[in-house]
Amino acid sequence: NPHGVATAASREKYPEVWTSDGKMTVIKSLFLAVGTNCIVSGDIDLARQCASCANYFKSFIEDIFQQSRPLSLEVDKNIELFMADEHTLVRYFQKHIPCPCLDGKYKEVKRV
Fold first, then answer.
1. For 67, left (φ over 0), alpha (ψ -120 to 50), or beta?
2. How many CB atoms lie under 10 A from the CB of residue 31?
3. Other C-beta atoms within 10 Å of 22: how many?
4. Cβ contacts of residue 30 below 8 Å, gap of 6+?
5. pTM over 0.70
6. How far apart are CA 53 and CA 31, in angstroms?
7. Taking a C-beta distance cutoff of 8 angstroms, is the pair 109, 90 a contact?
């Protein structure tokens, strides 16, 4: 599990980040922004990684800080995003970031 390895390593080095809702939200937003740029520029492989990471942090924030559900981290959804087709990725980013730059891309991949 790459997320688990990265989490353990960064928690050890930067524990203050993992206890801050605000810092975790910034990290999630960064993955969403980079992933959106990747979709627009055609780097689908990196967009998949960004979507998976953004979803991991979204789940972490909901599970730990908002305590809106039992701890889940949405492992299945993260794997799905990591292997997603372009249509699924564009829809994921459209749902999480209000950017008209994805509208044209959605029209392109709508048939997938």
1. left
2. 20
3. 10
4. none
5. yes
6. 7
7. yes
